[in-house]
Specification:
This protein is mainly alpha-helical. The chain has a domain of 27 residues. The protein is built from two helices and no strands. The longest helix has 25 residues.
């Protein structure tokens, strides 16, 4: 189980790195602090991945 969580954590961090790269491509003039703020905004405010109700199981 521990290895599975490590893989999930690694994928999550890679996804954040990809999002940072996208933000930097789209807005090359913003500061590092603004990039991190954009990441935080994206994490907390992004829309659901698919339409419909959220299923927890």
């Amino acid at each position: 189980m521990h290895e599975s969580l490590a893989i999930v954590d690694e994928m999550y961090l890679e996804g954040l790195a990809m999002k940072r790269a996208q933000i930097r491509r789209d807005r090359p003039d913003i500061s590092d602090e603004s990039v991190e703020q954009s990441i935080q905004d994206w994490i907390t405010n992004r829309p659901m991945d698919a339409p419909g109700r959220v299923r927890l199981t």
